[in-house]
Specification:
The chain is mainly beta and 193 residues long. Helix content is 10%, strand content 65%. The strands form 2 sheets. It has a 10-stranded mixed sheet with strand order 7-6-1-2-3-4-5-8-9-12, with no helix packed on it. A two-stranded antiparallel sheet has the order 10-11. The chain is globular. The two termini are 36 Å apart.
Length: 193
């Protein structure tokens, strides 16, 4: 099964925070903020593909049309013109899911005391495995940013390099109980009085 959605929109941002890096010739000394007004149009698409109950693919991409409305400032800072998210899940047997969760983002401009600086494209690739014990408890292991890229969110402010994440997801049984009661009592009384 495949579902494709296409969408678009327009947003107006008043007093949006924009980071300002205070630099000397070799490093970032600190940060300050300025407020800018932006308008943004965007178009995008998302794709959801399911093959039986074994493979799930989710992709979502956006293209942005930015304009800085602040008087005396033409450039748009800290915001990219496009982004793409791609997740692929593969179910192995009844208990295991292997996944690849990836984020890509176009180049951005940083506002610094030394002038505008270009930040490189973000490529954040992650691999993981999830084991389901029962309907309430899952455990997972993820290898994040396995290319060990310096994905700077802001100028001089990089994300973590290659890292491991281990965790559990627990959904209390009462959530399933409420869902069960709602489904059986509400639908029985409302639909079949």
């Amino acid at each position: 099964t495949m579902v494709i959605d296409v969408y678009g929109g327009y947003s107006l941002f008043k007093n949006a925070y924009t980071m300002f890096a205070i630099c000397d010739s070799t490093s970032v000394m600190g940060y300050s903020y300025s407020l800018h007004d932006y308008q943004r149009g965007h178009v995008g698409a998302s794709l959801h593909y399911h093959y039986r109950d074994m493979v799930h693919v989710k992709a979502k991409g956006n293209y942005y049309f930015w304009k800085n409305l602040t008087k005396g400032v033409d450039d748009v800072y800290d915001r990219s013109n496009w982004d793409l998210n791609l997740r692929i899940d593969a179910k192995i047997g009844q208990k295991w899911i292997l996944y690849s969760d990836n984020h890509f983002e176009g180049k951005r401009w940083a506002y610094t005391s030394l002038g505008n600086k270009e930040l490189p494209m973000i490529i954040d690739l992650n691999l993981g495995a999830q084991y389901t014990f029962n309907r309430w408890l899952d455990a997972y292991l993820q290898l994040g940013n396995y290319l060990h890229r310096d994905n700077s969110i802001f100028y001089g402010y990089p994300t973590q390099g290659c890292h491991f994440l281990v965790g559990i997801k627990y959904a209390p049984a009462f959530i399933f109980l409420v869902g069960f009661l709602f489904k059986n009592l509400f639908t029985a009384n409302v639909l079949n009085p």
